[in-house]
Amino acid sequence: MEVVIKQASEDACIAGARIVARLVREKPTAVLGLATGGTPLPLYCELIRMHRDEGLDFSRTTTFNLDEYLGLEPTHPQSYHHFMRENLFDAINIPVENRHIPDGMTSDVPGFCRDYERRIRDAGGIDLQILGIGSDGHIGFNEPVSSFASRTRIKTLAKETLQDNARFFDGDPDKVPRHCITMGIGTIMDARRVLLLAFGESKSRAVAGMTEGPVASVLPASILQHHPDAKILLDNAAASELKRADYYRWVYENKPDWQRDA
Ligand code: GLP
Q1: Mean pLDDT within 180-208
Q2: Angle at the Cα of 177 (from 174 to 209), degrees rounded to 5?
Q3: Does the pLDDT of residue 28 top 90, yes or no?
Q4: Is the pLDDT of residue 260 over 80?
Q5: Nearest to residue 27, comparing CAs of 99, 159, 173, 128?
Q6: Residues contacting ligand 1 via CB (< 6 Å)
Q7: Atom of ligand 1 at shortest distance to CA of 161?
Q8: Is 69 within the bounds of a domain?
Q9: How many domains does one find in the chain?
Q10: Alpha-carbon gap, residue 108 to 131, rounded angstroms
Q11: Domain for residue 239, yes or no?
C-alpha cells in the first residue's frame, strides 16, 4: 500500500487523473474500473479537460463500473448510469459498447452478475480500478463483513450507507434503494492496480483503520493491504487520524522523480 497525502483533494485528483491518462496513453485498450460518488468527480473533470485540451483518446478504452442501485432505471437522476453519463461519458469518447455498468433493472440478478464477471474476464481483466471508500469502510457497495472472496452479486445496504447517501434522495434514507449490485471484493482485488481516493474528515476513521489497522472483513477496504499495487490518495483531512502520516509524507518527498507520480 502506498499512501500519498496531498494538501487538497483537487491536487490528489489531478495526480489520480495523470495516472489514468498515462495508462490510457501507454495502453489504448486499457480496461478501467470506475467508481461513482462525490470523491472521484474532480478526477473525472480533469480527464475531461485532458480529452478536450490534450487529445487524450479513450476510443479503444473499456470500462466497468463498480455498482448500481437495484430498482432504478438508467434514466433515474440518482442511478449510477445517469451519474456516469453526466459526469464523464457524455464528455469523452469511450464507445457506448465498451461501457459496462451493472443493470439495476435486471429480472435475473444472479444471471446478470455471472455475466458481468464473464465480461470482465473476456475484456482481459481490469487494469486500473478507481475506488472511493464509504464511512463504514465499504468499497464498491461491499459492506462490513462482506467476504474477501466475494464476486459480483446483490447486497443489502447498511443503515450507515443509507444515511450517507440520503443526501442524494431529498435527505431521506427511506428513499435510498435498499439493494444494489456490486462487484465483489474478490473482483476488485483481481484488478492489476488499485487507486483509492478519500477526502474529508468523515473518511478519516475508515482510512486509518484500512491503512494501519488489522485486515478484517469488518472493514472491507483493509483487504487492500494485501493488494500488490494499491495507491491511496488522501487530502490532509482524510489523513488526520493516521499515526504514521509524517512517515508517508517523508517517503513521498524522498522518492526519485520518476517514481513520484507514477
Ligand atoms: C457509495 C459508492 C461507493 C463510494 C461511496 C463513497 O456508497 N457505492 O463506490 O465510494 O459511496 O461516496 P462519496 O465519494 O460520495 O463519499
Answers
A1: 98
A2: 90
A3: yes
A4: no
A5: 128
A6: 35-39, 66-67, 132-134, 140-141, 161, 165
A7: 7
A8: yes
A9: 1
A10: 26
A11: no
